[in-house]
Amino acid sequence: MKSTKEYYHSVTLDKDKCMGCTNCIKRCPTEAIRVRDGKARIIDERCIDCGECILVCPYHAKIAVTDPLSAINEYRYKIALPAPTLFGQFKNLKDCNMIMAALMKIGFDYVFEVALGADVVSELIKEKLKIPDIPKPLISSACPAIVRLIQVRFPNLLNHLCRVESPMEVAAQMAKDEFSKLYGVPIEEIGAFFITPCAAKMTSIRNPIGNESSHVDGAISILDIYGPIASNLKSGVDVEDLHRASGAGLSWAITSGESNSLKIDNYLSVDGIQNVIPVLEEIENNRMSDLDFFEGLSCSGGCVGGPLTFENGYVAKNRIRLLAKEIQNKSKKIMNLSYVKKNMNWQIQKNIIEKPVLKLDENIVMAIQKMEFLERINKSLPGLDCGSCGSPSCRTLAEDIVRGTASEMDCIFKLREKVRNLAEEMIELSEKMPAGREQKGKGENKLYE
């Protein structure tokens, strides 16, 4: 079921598990998390569902909401769309067909590799790169967390985004079209489910970027489906020759996989969202205009490092590399590119616009006054960005104070200063108070001996 909410997020908070440790606020790339009253809070307008908070939370209080495996039963016909990352999760896997056969045994009627969609998307991006006067560098739009990061923090770079749909979306259309024609069934009765390594893909299905709706009907976490696949592999599966993607398509799961598939030299590939941010800053400052293509990946190592994966990202990366090498010389037939271009929505249909964060005030005059107040508060804060106040930085604390969700006393340095001043005032006051009553007359008892 598609979401109609303005802000849908797969990443959610389990407040019962949250211990208010502040680990998450320092790692969030968009400053979307605050800790107040001992509990974290995620700001919808800022969250990009990158999953960094899931990776760093020691109490597992951040979770990603995905579809259960049982969701496939809502459709008469079920198609599995395994992410290339899935094939790197299993030890000693020599044949991708084994995973696809296991998915069929679990309950899917058809399996269509997203890596095959990646093969098609690679060809479409190649054509985009040949267009004269396109903004350079062209920025990959494959990682939804990076696209949302650009919406929130780097809106000036939105025109640099490659307006080609993700391999997941292209694969979903190809799969439904192929299955419908092959078995003579209406597309409306077909459900396509992405086997996802990350929360951002779930969000892009429920709340698409640049399109009215997704062609994918749901997303199942690799963590949730790993067990059933492993169980079927252990008991044995009837292997058919279902695998069609190239080694290049499979390599989209790891850093530089997309860029290498384009057969170009002048590209830059960066993984880990904290590493991507400074590069985007350089692009925004027009210091990389000589670069042809930029591939930014939110997760370390690429999609294999996603928060919903089972295997260690570096181990999975090596497995993908070996599998891709094994199949790279084999002839693989992909869908006719002209057919895809003619019959499918392979381009992002709508303008990707800036994603507004919370405004200080709807009234422009009040907003300016609050901004001036914010700057004064920020200058009075220590500038250490320690996060002890529950805000990720001193500036965000100043912003929270202006919004009325925090106070200066949330800063431990301000609080210590206030306590010290109060102590000094109490000492001064005690020195001004009379020590005791004076002796009033001869023979009268003293107050103190």
Written description of the protein model:
There is one protein chain. This protein has 449 residues and is α/β, with parallel strands linked by helices. It has three domains: 11-64, Alpha-Beta Plaits (2-Layer Sandwich); 69-343, no CATH class; 364-430, 3-methyladenine DNA Glycosylase II, Chain A, domain 3, CATH 1.10.15. The protein is built from 16 helices and eleven strands. It has helices at residues 23-27, 52-56, 96-106, 114-129, 144-153, 167-183, 199-206, 222-235, 247-250, 257-261, 273-284, 313-327, 337-343, 364-380, 394-403, 412-432; strands at residues 11-13, 33-36, 39-42, 62-64, 77-82, 110-111, 138-139, 190-196, 218-221, 267-271, 293-297. The strands form four sheets. It has a four-stranded parallel beta sheet, with helices on both faces. A three-stranded parallel beta sheet has the order 7-11-10, with helices on one face. β8 (190-196), α7 and β9 form a beta-alpha-beta unit. α3 (96-106) packs across α8 (222-235) and α14 (364-380) crosses α15 (394-403). The protein is elongated. The termini are far apart.
Q: What is the average per-residue confidence, as pLDDT, rounded to a whole number?
A: 91
Number of helices: 16
Strands, count: 11
Summarize the amount of helix as a percent range: 25-40%
Specify the structural class: alpha/beta
Stretches where pLDDT is under 50 for at least 5 consecutive residues are none
Distance between the termini: 85 Å
* Strand ordering within the main sheet: 6-5-8-9
Strand residue content: 5-15%
Shape: elongated
Main sheet overview = 4 strands, parallel
What is the count of distinct domains?
3
Instruction: List the helices and strands in order.
Output: EHEEHEEHEHEHHEHEHHHEHEHHHHH
Radius of gyration: 28 Å
